[in-house]
Design brief:
The protein has about 775 residues and is of the alpha/beta class. Among the domains are: about 130 residues, no CATH class; about 180 residues, no CATH class. The chain has 25 helices and 23 strands. Strands 6-5-4-3-2-1-7-8-9 form a nine-stranded mixed sheet, with helices on one face. Strands 17-18-19-21-20 form a five-stranded mixed sheet. It has a four-stranded antiparallel sheet with strand order 10-13-14-15. The longest helix is centred in the middle third of the chain and has 24 residues.
């Protein structure tokens, strides 16, 4: 597992000069002037030593992926030959140790076809700076002669939009100037069809505050107002492109990661390498004072472990601990995170201040929270009547169909935001970049087919495995199989590369084509009437819609259960193997029929005994994963919070399966609720004694068990006989004991306290069990 003090992102300065004279540039016109002492371009020996240091660090810390951002000055001034050699060195030195996410940030004016070819070949994503239309862009971004750079930048973006170079198009970086019209800026940026947009606040400090209209010098929030104008349009337009600032604030609102060091409390594990090999802190610090980013260390003299131990770099990994008291007490701390560190600087107090943009950030966050985002983003559940009603409904046990449906919708919106955030930030090889482009097209042209991707239960855990700090390397090829399945559902006309795993090409929710070993992958050809999978050295597997029988080499996904609740019986997808217990292998026909009968029987039992749980079961459980039977004959079931709407079950009789289903249903619902609000204090490590375990449990685990056992007690109370009465007494006592234990702690939030009290009220409202 990657260690917490590892460095995972590197900003590599390959050229220290620039071909523009932007008057808002923190490198050349702000307080720090160390650029003038640096070599103009990086020496190959320095670049190689950097690569060695990165590989050494990745190996020592078992990092699966690192990001390297080529920067300047203007990195394109290095030229295609030198850039190709540098990128080759990085690939050859670091590539065998960790996957490389390569990015380049440029003003674009030197971009050529030759350079684009280099970037596509090495899998580099290029971000281009553009501040809007010609008037907006030329306000700051001009040549030294004063001439406009706008036309040259547009030529660069036109190059990146060409199909053969599109995989290298990383997006647009736009520095905010409140003198520019936000609507015109947004329109101009969208016209360049970027894969993402990044709005940047101009670097400023309390000593050198940002420009503000005269009317707001002593108050007002002009930067928030400017960004909110764009945010409202962006929502009305259906979020046509990922916007890193907005997506980060929405993600952090529900406890997710930020995509930028500018907001949020995620640890910052970044260092800068200057053209002479000096290790430095974040480049933005150069706006604070001369030498602010320096460490006194070099690639020749210090390892990355030594750099990571530098007090100022280590402090960036401590979340709120490095922030001033004002920030730590602020209600938007989790989302704001104090803003960019450089923006907190003031002579005398250093960085122990709120951001110079404090009022703007707070207004932006609070306004975004208040903005209705139906159908575009997961809701943020703040304390109030709406959350209270949701908690009370769920605490009743079964909960209403409307609540479950709403949670499911929010889960899909969360999955969409995570998909766009995570995959949009990856450096993808050309075949996967093409798949990502196709999936984005399907999101617009075939929303129902794209919705099937969002409902895949393994999507979210796969996306989390793509994050830099994941415990194991990500299966990036899964993106191609998800896209392929969406294309089939859409009846698209498409051709794409797909990976072969264990001799099969799996299309999630559809089935697997048996190809035999094919290390180079296979080709999926999709047409409106079906699809064909072709791998070298193996017969093609052709599936045609509506044709009777299964073609040779095709293992179809099976569905089981009653007509009122048809679920995917998933015994094919490799990503299903995330349960607490081992999953079963591919079922034979007889075993599949037995599972169909078992799920139908359990549905019948619940129809008779607990019909109020059926709407939630129908809405929240779409996939059942058969588990291997326990050798000792014990019952087995499981869920995973990251695998929404899926449960794992081992074979059991109909009545037992009904209980297991309701037990796991509660875990699914509570997991969805926890995506939207905190029930336990995030930093409270209190553990709770629960009667169903020998060990003490963390608060979230105790809540999960409490809620699941509430439903199990509810089912047993509805059954007759001595065994049912005994089970009801046991589970009812378990629920009350655990609820009391949780309420005695200081670890519950207000929402958590209400939820636990509601569960106890539900139990108290049941008739007393027979003695």
């Amino acid at each position: 597992m990657p260690q917490a003090d590892a460095i995972t992102e590197y900003v590599l300065k390959v050229h220290s000069r620039c071909d523009l004279r932007c008057d808002h540039c923190y490198v050349y016109v702000h307080r720090d002037q160390t650029w003038s002492d640096r070599p103009k371009l990086i020496d190959p020996a320095v670049a190689h030593r950097v690569a060695e240091r990165i590989a050494e660090h990745a190996r020592a810390h078992r990092l699966h992926r690192v990001r390297v951002v080529l920067h300047g000055g203007e990195p394109l001034l290095l030229g295609p030959r030198r850039l190709d050699a540098l990128l080759t060195d990085l690939r050859e030195t670091v590539g065998p140790v960790a996957a490389l996410d390569l990015v380049l940030q440029s003003n674009g004016v030197q971009l050529t076809e030759e350079l684009c070819g280099v970037f596509v070949r090495h899998g580099v994503r290029v971000g281009i700076s553009l501040d809007g239309d010609a008037e907006a862009n030329d306000r700051h971004r001009r040549f030294g002669s004063g001439a406009s750079s706008h036309a040259a930048v547009l030529r660069a973006l036109e190059l990146l939009r060409r199909p053969e170079f599109r995989p290298a198009y990383g997006g647009i970086l736009c520095t905010v100037d409140v003198a520019n019209d936000p609507d015109r800026v947004y329109t101009a940026l969208l016209a360049e069809r970027p894969p993402r947009i990044d709005f940047l606040l101009p670097h400023a400090t309390w000593d050198d505050p940002p420009p503000r209209p005269v009317s707001t010098v002593d108050g007002g929030t002009p930067y928030a107002d400017w960004l909110l104008r764009i945010y409202h349009r962006w929502l009305r337009d259906g979020r046509p492109v990922p916007v890193r600032l907005f997506d980060s604030l929405r993600s952090t609102a529900v406890g997710g990661p930020s995509q930028t060091e500018s907001v949020g409390l995620d640890p910052v594990a970044l260092v800068v390498i200057e053209t002479d090999g000096a290790w430095e802190q974040a480049d933005s610090l150069k706006t604070a004072f001369h030498g602010a980013a320096g460490t006194g260390m070099s690639v020749w003299t210090h390892s990355l472990d030594e750099v990571a131990a530098h007090p100022d770099i280590a402090a960036r990994r401590d979340g709120a601990a490095e922030l001033c008291a004002t920030c730590r007490a602020c209600p938007v701390l989790r989302q704001c995170g104090g803003g960019l560190r450089a923006h907190r600087f003031r002579t005398g107090s250093g960085f122990d201040n709120p951001s110079v943009y404090c009022a703007d950030l707070k207004e932006l966050i609070l306004s975004m929270r208040a903005e209705p985002e139906v159908g575009t983003a997961p809701a943020t559940m703040e304390p109030g009547p709406r959350l209270d009603a949701l908690l009370d409904d769920l605490a009743s046990g079964a909960g209403s169909a409307g609540t479950t449906s709403w949670l499911l919708e929010q889960g899909q919106l969360y999955a969409k935001a995570l998909l766009m955030d995570v995959v949009g930030s990856l450096s993808l090889p050309a075949p996967l970049a093409e798949a990502w482009q196709l999936l984005n097209q399907l999101a617009e042209t075939a929303p129902d087919a794209f919705g099937r991707v969002l409902r895949q239960p393994w999507l979210r855990q796969w996306l989390l495995s793509c994050l830099p700090d994941a415990e194991a390397p990500a299966d990036l090829g899964y993106l191609a199989t998800l896209t392929g399945a969406a294309a089939v559902h859409a009846g698209a006309d498409a051709r794409l590369w797909v990976p072969v795993r264990d001799g099969r090409v799996h299309l999630p929710g559809l089935g697997s084509a048996v190809t035999g070993p094919a290390p180079g992958g296979a080709t999926l050809r999709v047409t409106p009437d079906g699809f064909t999978v072709t791998a070298p050295g193996s017969p093609a597997v052709a599936v045609r819609h509506g044709r009777a029988g299964e073609p040779p080499g095709w293992l179809p996904a099976r569905h089981a259960g009653p007509d009122d609740w048809p679920v995917l019986l998933d015994d094919l997808d490799a990503h299903r193997d995330c349960q607490e217990w081992p999953v079963a292998d591919r079922l034979d026909d007889a075993a599949a029929r037995a599972w169909d009968a078992r799920l139908r029987g359990a549905w019948t039992v619940l129809t008779r005994e607990a019909p109020d749980y059926l709407p939630a079961l129908r809405g929240a459980v779409h996939t059942v994963v058969p588990l291997r039977d326990d050798p000792a004959g014990e019952q087995r079931s499981s869920t995973r919070r990251e695998a929404f709407a899926a449960v794992g079950l081992a074979a059991a009789d109909d009545a037992a399966t009904a209980v297991l289903l309701v037990h796991e249903l509660q875990h699914v619902k509570l997991g969805a609720l926890l995506d939207l609000c905190e029930l336990g204090e995030p930093d409270n490590l209190t553990t709770v004694t629960v009667p169903w375990r020998d060990d003490e449990r963390p608060v979230e685990a105790a809540l999960q068990g409490l809620y699941a056992h509430l439903a199990v007690a509810d089912l047993w109370r509805r059954r007759t006989g001595a065994e049912a009465a005994g089970n009801f007494r046991r589970y009812r006592t378990w629920v009350s004991t655990a609820a009391a234990g949780l309420r005695r702690t200081s670890a519950l939030t207000g929402a958590g306290t209400r939820f636990v009290a509601g569960i106890q009220a539900t139990v108290d409202g049941w008739p007393a069990p027979d003695p």
